[in-house]
Amino acid sequence: MSALQFAASPTNNSEKANYNHLVLDIVGFGLAMPAIDRFREVYAIRLGADANQLTLLASLPALVLLFASSLAGRWMSRYSNSTQAVFWPGIGFRLAFLLPALTAFMPASFQLHWLTLAIILPSLAQGISAVGFVVMMRESVHEKKIAPLHSHRMMALNITVALSGLAMGFWLERVPFPYNYQSIFVVGFIFALMSLWHVNRVRVLPELVSRPVAQEIQLVNPWRSKSFQVVVFVVALSFMSFTAIKPLISLHLIKNLGANEWYISMFGLADLAAGAIIAIFVSRISQRFGNRYMIAMGLVGTGISALLIATTHNLNMSLVASAISGASWMMVNIGQFAFFSEMTPVNHKERFTTAYHQVVFLAMFIGPLIGKLLGSEGTSLVTVLLIGGVFRVFAGILTQVHIRSWFSRARQLHVIHR
């Protein structure tokens, strides 16, 4: 049964159409995504990027995203609805697929710098687009449909990214460098525009749009919400631990294990296929264990995957590790958004969504820097991956304890011992 057939349950035609457009949006985006998610990093390695440069390529855009997301509320207030608000940021964000295609036209000494700019500049629009899109999604389908919609979107994303990744890997191996990379970036941009077409067809439901008065907005501070503080703690740990070593895995596979572009596409296929399969069962896992515990299980799984990649010299075993990572991160990814939705109020969506993305982007900025610190003083990639794997497992355990309770217990112990 297809994702669109699953979408037959919404009670009115507008919601059904929104549901379908939001699934088809991710289909187009999934076909485009491997160009920048998998192969842009490999492209940087082919241009001579080392571990330090890869971590900067991963962390600097997140810093820009953090800044841009703080402007999202002001940007969205200029428009009558969230669909209109995401149009221009959506175009700017999708330039991330096109700008890297210009790298080959730059002088050799400037190519890595241009590739960095090609990642950073669209991040300005992406920060606004990311916040606006989540608000639009929560205003276009009812809350009870958010979890299945997110699950179907992730299934569609994994399937399309897997197929597109294989096709791009096949192409990259058979077309001379750098024309092979230039072409996949251009094709990715075309698919990304197809995705934007579906986004523009979404129509918000009037009953889901709540516009607090200005005085009320001033009184709402997400950072003082105890439930949101729990979300901050869990989400920050998840993204910091996952991104700390993510940029270094491809470097390890290529430099230490001799992987090529076709293998990278197979590595991605194992990741995404496992994620697509586990997405079918995520709702049941969430209902049985809860979103927060599901996030913990997923993080532990990503840690085990990193440990396997670091300790094996067999590329086939790395494919198994990739599958474990894909299934585990899918649990974390779906669990985080569902956890955020259940722990935050429906009113003041813009403020809470902006704060949520600021946490994500800050964690994505800090995470690669942690990996960079781990790799300083000549530490081998294998050692860094081992430490990063342990960090992921430890983070999964820590998500089950809220930081406020630590301080409370520490205070009580201090009083008792006095």
Write the layout of secondary structure elements.
Elements lengths: L2 H4 L6 H20 L1 H4 L1 H8 L4 H19 L2 H5 L5 H4 L1 H12 L12 H30 L2 H32 L4 H21 L14 H6 L6 H18 L2 H10 L5 H29 L1 H21 L3 H29 L5 H26 L6 H18 L4 H15 L1
Helix pairs in contact: 2-10, 2-11, 5-9, 5-18, 8-9, 8-11, 9-18, 10-15, 10-17, 13-16, 13-17, 13-18, 13-19, 15-16, 15-17, 16-17, 16-19
Please explain how this structure is put together.
The protein is built from 20 helices and no strands. With 418 residues, the chain is mostly helical. The N terminus is likely disordered.
**Count of alpha/pi helices:** 20
Please give the number of β-strands: 0
Terminal Cα separation, in Å?
A: 64 Å
Radius of gyration: 21 Å
Backbone shape:
globular
Outline the low-pLDDT stretches: 1-11, 212-217
Summarize the main sheet: none
Structural class: mainly alpha
Overall pLDDT level: 84
Percentage of residues assigned to helices: over 70%
Percent of residues in beta strands?
under 5%
Q: Spell out the helices and strands N to C.
A: HHHHHHHHHHHHHHHHHHHH
Summarize it.
With 418 residues, the protein is mainly α.
Task: Name the descriptors.
79% helix, globular, 418 residues, 20 helices, mainly alpha, disordered N terminus
